[in-house]
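Hey L., structure's done. Input below.
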Amino acid sequence: MGTAIGQATNRKLMRDLRVYMAVGGMPQAVEAYVEGKNFSEIDMVKRQIISLYEDDFKKIDASGRISALYHAIPAQLSKDSRKYRITSAIGKKNNTRAEELLYELIDSKTILPCYNSTEPRVSMADTKDFNSYKLYLADTGLFVTLMFIDRPVTENDVYAKLLSDKLPANLGFLYENLVAQMISASGRELYYHTWEKAGSTHYYEVDFLISEGSKVNAFEIKSSGSGKHESIKAFYKKFSNNVHDIYLLSQKDAGKDENLLLKPFYLMPFLIRHKSDFKY
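Output:
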């Protein structure tokens, strides 16, 4: 399971995947890419799609608060917080109405909710915390555009740096969105798990959980593949009787670190599809 793919092949496949991340899967954006448009021109196509979304959101709520909830997603993920905070996006308003707007946004299918499973030893659906969730975009190409929506157009230079993996910011949250899209495309709900770290103000968090029969597979996302893997190893120790496999997804080649399986991002669809409880 830890057989290396080879550095040259891995680099090529990761670059191909980053092209997909830059373009996304919206038909208009894909058509622009196939026609040979540059990435700034493709970015403008994606901005037009986002603008159409905003028009539709305002038909539901003219105040623009649904758009604000949508636009806040990259910023909230970049802060690496434990959950999405509605008040950070639209301020302290009527809680009931704010939740209604959130569900309108979820129903639009433009975003992907990921819920905290408070007790992954049992059914994750039965331990879903509706007050603790993260939000991802349904299209990672639109996510890239939304990251830079504060400027008139995302320049070709930004996309060139993304494609060559030279953007300066820690882009773990961008790759989280990619994996969330992959899991959702397989027909599964999204779950994560977080818990307090004893004697500390910090906390443990596992980015994604996928059921496999009566057990779960846990996934940690790292944009570079470097760094510690404290949370996922603590998760395995805490829930060892309930865990099938633990994975670290990154841009690095496949490998193994004790019981931690190291996989490049482009293998994620295969890690989902071979699961015994998945129904086509």
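The longest strand covers residues 128-137. Residues 274-280 have pLDDT under 50 and may be disordered.

-- N.
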